[in-house]
């Protein structure tokens, strides 16, 4: 038997979970609970929840891999009882564990998925039990919104806080970008953190707000450059959210339309440079062209910023003829970002000006390449 | 004046009574109860050691049933202060004592994957475990042992304990784990809980390991160890039974030993022959007896060795079958 192997039945279920989960679940660590520690049968799952992560240990038994796994929840969730315990003879509602079938690879996914939904309900209940008038009011105004996740954090050394993850914008971002290869649904959330105040205060402190998006969205839109509208005193979420969504929606529409601007620019580059060797067809953020000056042949990499054309593309030259001796990598220039540029030029002029600049600059690069080669001798 | 004398006599009598009850042994009494809080859980050193041994020798996770009793100790905290007196006597102190346990080679023998009790299997186990023992110990909880996991109840353990709680009260859950890192000095961690029906939660309890020795004399006096002698399939009386002896000396020695023990009616009384004039001849006889005994012990040890080899062989075979089912081949 192979060292550190996972029993095949367990591996099939785990792989199915990792590949088919709507949330991007990860395995943090895997280890063995057997006397002979070569069989890995327990692992920690890192499950996204409320813009944070929850870590659950899944405990299988390598000696008896046909048995259903057990779950150990986080230390803060000792009171989380997902499945009700009835008296003997009561008809218990079925759950993912009660009719466990080791032959079915989807079982672990449905178990984790079921537990995550029950955990969501449990956290919502905890939040609703918090004795804070303002919080009660804010939550009541947001009830019509779907998919809000809540988390009540409390610990010995932590302040009591209620965290909300409010999904913004009803539009389907995945559908807005033609040909996008995003595997998970892209979404933008507003993270709202309320410090819990037990007694009535005349001046309530503003909630802490932060915009968070799914990580792959950065190819289209940068959440960090979005400025949140100010939170005015006496404001409530029901007032704040529509303004925020309106601003966000218009900026995202701009971001989507700027894909077209970038696409036109790349098409225009093909006039002086010839067809690109490689170009990013979805977000049009990258393109590479082959160019030559006399016999000196080199590649030009274009990296287009999200603020294109306000911000000019970054260029990198890469020689096809000169290589670093030791790692054998082609010699590259520094990032060129300081060349004549105006966002007011039309795309054809932009392409023409870059071409003219490179006619001069490539000579410097060739000189640099030769110097590197001389140094290597 | 007369009244004063009576008052003194009455108060002296009271003092005497109070002293008596505080110095005397605590009163033990069996009781039945609903959701009453245990003060602590007692376990004898050998029982804990054998539990840990069972856990650490197993290949994977194990669990099983715990047997014992719950006793009420009327605490000896009586004082002369009448106000304190009334409050303390209302709350009896309950102590659970774990005396034995049962485990099979696997987990999940008496509950479903979702953690609900399988009553016929559980009753069967309880019957098997309690029918032989003469004491009136009963099921008082269960334990779970899993290597390299956190020392807190899991999803299934919670469900099992909660459903067990509806059958027995109080219900104890004993959790054994090993640390995640091998380089730590300690090799085991354990924690005992009482499952409370009122709050529906685990209530951690202190574990009192009762050992022999001067330091434990006080509570060892109150503790009845219960380790029934295992039911061995041979008769101690007929030490010459053939199955036990497979040494080279064979039957002849046996018969001799048997004759020593039985025909000559070897009694403690004969040991007094060691004193006095006949001692020299008698020592030879006694040495022969010891020699025979040693041979028998030797034979028994060989038998044990052979049978454990067979058990190991069977276990390996079982493991291979399990791996086959699990798709390793």
From TrEMBL, chain A:
Q: What are the UniProt keywords, alphabetically?
A: Apoptosis, Cell cycle, Cell division, Chromatin regulator, Cytoplasm, DNA damage, DNA repair, Mitosis, Nucleus, Repeat, Ubl conjugation pathway
Which Pfam families does the record cross-reference, listed alphabetically? BRE (PF06113)
Task: Provide the Gene Ontology terms for cellular component.
Answer: BRISC complex; cytoplasm
According to its UniProt entry, one GO biological process term is: chromatin organization
Q: Does the record's keyword annotation contain Cell cycle?
A: yes
Q: Name where it's found.
A: Cytoplasm; Nucleus
- At the top level, the lineage of the source is Eukaryota
Per the record, the similarity remark reads: Belongs to the BABAM2 family.
Protein name listed in UniProt: BRISC and BRCA1-A complex member 2
UniProtKB/TrEMBL annotation, chain B:
What keywords were assigned to this record?
Answer: Signal
Q: Would you tell me the Gene Ontology cellular component terms? A: nucleus
Q: Does the keyword Endoplasmic reticulum apply?
A: no
Query: What is the residue range of the signal peptide feature?
Result: 1-24
Q: GO MF terms on file?
A: polyubiquitin modification-dependent protein binding
* InterPro entries hit by this protein: FAM175 (IPR023238), FAM175_plant (IPR023241)
Keyword Transcription appears in the UniProt entry: no
Protein name (database record): Uncharacterized protein
User: From what organism does this protein derive?
Assistant: Tagetes erecta (African marigold)
Taxonomy, top ranks, is: Eukaryota, Viridiplantae, Streptophyta, Embryophyta, Tracheophyta
């Amino acid at each position: 038997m192979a060292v550190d192997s996972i029993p095949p039945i367990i591996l099939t279920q785990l792989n199915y979970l990792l590949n088919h989960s709507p949330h991007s679940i990860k395995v943090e660590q895997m280890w063995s609970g057997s006397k002979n520690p070569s069989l890995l049968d327990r692992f920690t799952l890192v499950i996204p929840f409320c813009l944070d992560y929850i870590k659950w240990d899944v405990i299988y038994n390598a000696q008896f891999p046909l048995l259903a796994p057990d779950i150990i929840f986080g230390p803060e969730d000792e009171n989380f009882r997902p499945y009700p315990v009835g008296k003997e003879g009561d008809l218990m509602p079925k759950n993912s564990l009660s009719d466990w079938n080791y032959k079915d690879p989807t079982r672990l996914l449905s178990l984790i998925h079921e537990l995550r939904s029950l955990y969501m309900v449990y956290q919502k209940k905890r939040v609703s039990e918090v004795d804070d008038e303002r919080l009660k009011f804010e939550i009541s105004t947001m009830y019509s919104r779907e998919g809000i996740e809540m988390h009540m954090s409390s610990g010995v050394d932590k302040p009591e806080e209620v965290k909300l993850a409010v999904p913004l914008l009803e539009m389907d971002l995945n559908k807005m970008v033609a040909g996008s290869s995003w595997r998970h649904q892209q979404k933008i959330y507003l993270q709202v953190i309320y410090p819990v105040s037990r007694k009535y205060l005349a001046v309530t402190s503003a909630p802490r707000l932060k915009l968070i998006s799914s990580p792959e969205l950065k190819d289209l839109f940068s959440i960090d450059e979005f400025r949140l509208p100010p939170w005015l005193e006496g404001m409530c979420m029901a007032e704040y959210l529509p303004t925020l969504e309106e601003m966000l929606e218009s900026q995202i529409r701009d971001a989507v339309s700027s894909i077209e601007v970038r696409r036109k620019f790349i098409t225009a580059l093909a006039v002086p440079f010839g067809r690109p060797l490689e170009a990013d067809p979805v977000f049009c953020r990258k393109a590479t062209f082959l160019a030559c000056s006399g016999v000196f042949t080199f590649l030009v990499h274009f990296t287009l910023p999200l603020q294109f054309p306000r911000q000019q593309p970054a260029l990198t030259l890469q020689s096809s003829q000169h290589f670093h001796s030791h790692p054998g990598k082609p010699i590259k220039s520094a990032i060129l970002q300081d060349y004549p540029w105006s966002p007011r030029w039309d795309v054809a002029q932009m392409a023409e000006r870059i071409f003219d600049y490179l006619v001069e600059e490539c000579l410097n690069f060739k000189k640099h390449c030769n110097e590197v080669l001389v140094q290597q001798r | 004046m007369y009244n004063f004398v009576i008052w003194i006599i009455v108060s002296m009598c009271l003092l005497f009574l109070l002293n008596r009850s505080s110095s005397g042994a605590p009163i033990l009494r069996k009781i039945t109860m609903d959701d009453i809080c245990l003060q602590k859980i007692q376990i004898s050193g050998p029982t804990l050691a054998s539990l840990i041994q069972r856990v650490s020798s197993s290949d994977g996770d194990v669990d099983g049933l715990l047997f014992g009793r719950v006793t009420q100790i009327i605490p000896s905290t009586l004082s002369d202060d009448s106000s304190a007196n009334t409050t303390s006597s209302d709350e009896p102190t309950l102590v659970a004592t774990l005396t034995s346990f049962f485990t099979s080679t696997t987990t999940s023998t008496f509950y479903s994957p979702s953690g609900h009790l399988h009553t016929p299997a559980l009753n069967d186990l309880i019957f098997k475990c309690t029918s032989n023992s003469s004491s009136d110990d009963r099921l008082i909880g269960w334990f779970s042992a899993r290597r390299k996991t956190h020392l807190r109840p899991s999803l299934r353990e919670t469900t099992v304990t909660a459903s067990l709680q509806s059958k027995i009260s109080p219900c104890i859950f004993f959790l054994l784990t090993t640390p995640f890192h091998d380089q730590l000095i300690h090799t085991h961690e354990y924690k005992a809980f009482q499952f409370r029906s009122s709050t529906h939660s685990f209530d951690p309890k202190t574990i009192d390991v009762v050992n022999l020795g001067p330091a434990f004399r006080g509570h060892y006096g109150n503790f009845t160890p219960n380790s029934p002698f295992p039911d061995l399939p041979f008769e101690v009386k007929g030490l010459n039974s053939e199955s036990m002896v497979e040494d080279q000396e064979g039957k002849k020695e046996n018969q001799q030993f048997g004759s020593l023990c039985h025909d000559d009616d070897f009694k403690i009384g004969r040991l007094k022959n060691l004193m006095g004039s006949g001692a020299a001849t008698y020592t030879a006889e006694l040495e022969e007896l010891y020699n025979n005994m040693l041979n028998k012990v030797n034979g028994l040890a060989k038998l044990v060795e052979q049978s454990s080899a067979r058990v190991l062989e069977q276990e390996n075979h079982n493991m291979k079958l399990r791996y086959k089912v699990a798709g390793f081949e």
